[in-house]
Design goal:
By secondary structure, the chain is an alpha/beta fold. It is built from 4 helices and 5 strands, in the order βββαααββα. The protein has one domain. It is 41% helix and 14% strand.
């Protein structure tokens, strides 16, 4: 992984169609995106999804199983499972990248920009880095 620490220069000359962009953030640091195709992970979604699970199951095991079984047949359960999958997908990806802080924007699975809250600014920094490195 390469951490980019270069001055900001906004340009729009690169084509971003084949560039993978992943945004990792939380509720404290919303990241703006104009029109780029991105994968957006809000790491606070994990806690929100867990809060959707039923609470206060009956103490009796048989009754608790019955309540849980009924819940598992509902549309809300399917939505909760999907929300948990998506939330943990972002969490696992953040662990894989060994992200040190948020927000973080990962470009092509290799370049990490910390503290940038705009995809456009992150891409401008990335483009400037590419030009400087002759890539």
């Amino acid at each position: 992984m390469r951490l980019l620490a270069i001055p900001l220069l906004l340009t729009a000359s690169m084509s971003w169609a084949n560039v993978s962009i992943e945004v990792f953030t939380n509720d404290r640091f919303p990241v703006s995106n104009s029109d780029h195709k991105i994968t957006y992970y809000n790491l606070d979604d994990r806690q929100r999804a867990q809060m959707r699970l039923p609470k206060n199951l009956p103490a009796d095991l048989a009754k608790a199983k019955q309540v849980a079984s009924q819940y598992m047949q509902t549309a809300d359960f399917r939505k909760t499972v999907d929300a948990l999958k998506n939330a943990y997908q972002g969490y696992i990806a953040a662990l894989d990248y060994q992200l040190a802080k948020l927000p973080a924007i990962v470009i092509d699975g290799e370049y990490i920009l910390y503290g940038v809250t705009s995809v456009d600014k992150a891409l401008a920094l990335y483009e400037q880095y590419q030009e400087r490195e002759g890539q």
